[in-house]
Amino acid sequence: MPVTSSSFAVSPAGAATAPAPPPPALRLEQVSKRFRSSDAPGPASAPPVLAPLDLTISPGEFVAVLGPSGCGKSTLLRLLSGLAEPSAGTITIDGHPPGQGDDLAYVFQDATLLPWLRVDANVETLLRLRRVPAAERARRREAALALVGLADRARAYPRQLSGGQKMRVSLARALATEPRVLLLDEPFGALDEMTRDRLGEELLAIHARQRWTALFVTHSVAEAVFLATRILVLAPRPGRIAHDLRVELPYPRTHDTRRSADYLRLVAEVSARLRAVDPESGTGVPPAASSSAPSPAP
């Protein structure tokens, strides 16, 4: 079979070599987290929040994280963002440690808008902290507001916005930084179902255009299956990856996707796996247990 130049590169010596694969967007190697106990001295006295985790996420993947309360979902995001440090192990984001680049953005559970600033100024907040020049700030702000459908609300104050609009501003603020990795911690959890579904569809449309890597924490199995290319199910005490599932649904995903037989079957399967790792359900797996998925991620 002939070798095309698009598949191979030629070294100075003339030997054909396959191009190196892109580095992982996110990599965790034996990462664990343990908080100090107030009852006894020393970090070893506190039970681990996260057991040693190994995880690799490729550029452009949309990964959802599910798990019962207390399994370390938000702690995982804080470690990746650099807001907390692991007790052991290493984390790299596009090849560098957390907090050493401007290619990561974080969308929190609450919109966390500054009430005394208009929408446009809220979107620029992170850009000002990074000392982005005014003309570039304006370009990014306008592009981000257009992406989330709020170009006509740029001069409004947060108090004049609905809950869904506030979350759109929060997302626009993150997108204005032009991230390569986007961390989202239950951003739609407080919204009504219709607004939540609509924002999920809009988020996928933006992801299709910009192809950042996403790690999306949620308590909703239906939301995880709809959004993600891959789902991590965490088990608690200590937090660990019990299941790593591929979501074999085609994109683009629309309202009709939610009514398809394949979607409903996957929601039922993932729900069963989530119940199996939840100790409150009475069917929890022991701490060392882990099982493979119907469509395991490589």
Number of helices: 7
CATH architectural name of the largest domain: 3-Layer(aba) Sandwich
Radius of gyration: 21 Å
Distance between the termini: 27 Å
Q: Structurally, how many domains make up the residues?
A: 2
- State the low-pLDDT regions, or none: 1-16, 283-294
The CATH superfamily of the largest domain bears the name: P-loop containing nucleotide triphosphate hydrolases
Amount of helix = 25-40%
Report strand order across the widest sheet.
7-8-9-5-10-11
CATH class category of the largest domain = Alpha Beta
Give the integer mean of the pLDDT values.
Answer: 85
Order of helices and strands: EEEEEHEEHHHEHEHEEH
Care to describe what's here?
By secondary structure, the protein is an alpha/beta fold. The chain has seven helices and eleven strands. It has two domains: 58-86 and 94-103 and 179-298, Rossmann fold; 113-178, no CATH class. Helix content is 30%, strand content 20%. The strands form three sheets. It has a six-stranded mixed sheet, sandwiched between helices. A three-stranded antiparallel sheet has the order 4-3-6, covered by helices on one side. The radius of gyration is 21 Å and the shape is globular. The chain starts with 8 loop residues before the first strand and ends in a 21-residue tail after the last helix.
